[in-house]
User: Fold this.
Amino acid sequence: MGPSAPPGLPPELADLPWELPYSFLGLDEVGGAFESSAGVILPVPYESTTSWGSGTRRGPRAIIESSRHVELHDQEFDCEPGSVVGVHTLPSLELTRAGPEPAMKELGRAYGRVADACGDRFLVMLGGEHSISSPAVLAQATRHEERLTVLQMDAHADLRGEFEGTRDSHASAMTRVLERADVCAVGVRGVSQEEIDVSRASSGSTLIWADDMWEDDTWMDRALDALGPKVYLTFDVDYFDPSLVPSTGTPEPGGGDWYRTLRFLKRVFAERDVIAADVVELAPTPGLHAPDFLVAKLVYKIISYRFQRRLTE
Ligand SMILES: [Mn+2]
Assistant:
């Protein structure tokens, strides 16, 4: 059988020009086998409380679809990180529609079981709206003795007590997390006075303003100083300038660019133990592929940086 022949196919059809498998990077049963993969993708197309633009439930599919067209070769590492480390794509988790609270409970339990099954593998959850991050962080927090730091790449602080009647909103995602972990938010440029007050009153909260990211790179040192040894990375794609990623619910002008962001992430992964990650809030725009592709490549870079030592050996 050819390397990308769909599983279960009659052998006499194996040599037909089948498309790449529907999986992250289009890896086949061999390159993306769970057993041998160091990276695992968990799609969670959950959307319930998005306040303005919607469509994040289509995010995971757009990221995976785009990732099939990303070049496996990475010139930074001069190899194919995806082939070297292996990336397995799980099926999408379909959470209950009975409301935000039962859905987040269900996700917390499911995520915990996935994390257990993954063991040392690096788990990357794809959203979906940002509220899915807190059950994942809380599940990871119970699995590590040291207090985690959440590195939150985001235009927003998400520190509201509750938003539109629910504490399980994307806008209060980090309020719940702060009870169990420290949070360093990078790229922030759209916050309420209430959120600034919450952050200032909490020793575990650090805000790195997008406004401070342009003169020089000293913000990278301040962010790294705020990170403990174990880090959970949550990446809300509205962190990026909307000229790069307009496909998101609450786009804010300013924000991260591509190379500066990669430089920072590479340092974070080199200098801290990043135990898991999520990438959320992509709301694909029909006919506009560049943002989907950027986010797919970002996820690939995140996985590559996680294993940068292995790739440069
Ligand atoms: Mn945001």
Notes: The CA atoms of residues 216 and 280 lie 27 Å apart. The longest strand covers residues 273-280. The domain at 38-312 is CATH 3.40.800.10 (Arginase; Chain A). Residues 100-118 form the longest helix (19 residues).
